[in-house]
Amino acid sequence: MNDVIWVKTDALTNLNGRRFTNNHETLIWAVKDKNCKGYTFNYEQMKIMNGGKQMKDTDWVFGLCRGNERLKDENGIKAHPTQKPLKLIQQVILVANKKGDVVLDPFLGSGTTAFVAKALGRNWIGIEKEKKYVDLANSRMTVNQA
After folding, report:
1. What pTM was computed for the model?
2. Per-residue pLDDT tens digits for 66-95
3. Domains held by the chain: number
4. What range does the domain containing 50 cover?
């Protein structure tokens, strides 16, 4: 239906100087089939998030996870290389979902989607193939850490 571009305000610079810096990621908003009419689009919620004005832009600007939001391992190294910011996932869920609905994240990673979905009163399903990230997400959900 749409794509949304997460513009990373503080993306890492390209240290080797051989390509452009990757300062964005694409989020795909899709429905089961093109004739689907029962999907959720919380237009009024988007206006609230945009200071009372219609949100026209699909470029959403958020910084990377930093500080207390960034999960780290026992050595102080980031626990997952592509952890998404809470505010980005919160905006996605609030726009396209209602309380009690199910949120699917087929690449659960550090569990940010599950964490935010639970906090917003949504059910969630996560799929992750890497055991260390399954353990990280499970730990995050049981300890309730951001």
Report:
1. 0.87
2. 999 999 999 999 999 999 999 999 999 999
3. 1
4. 2-143
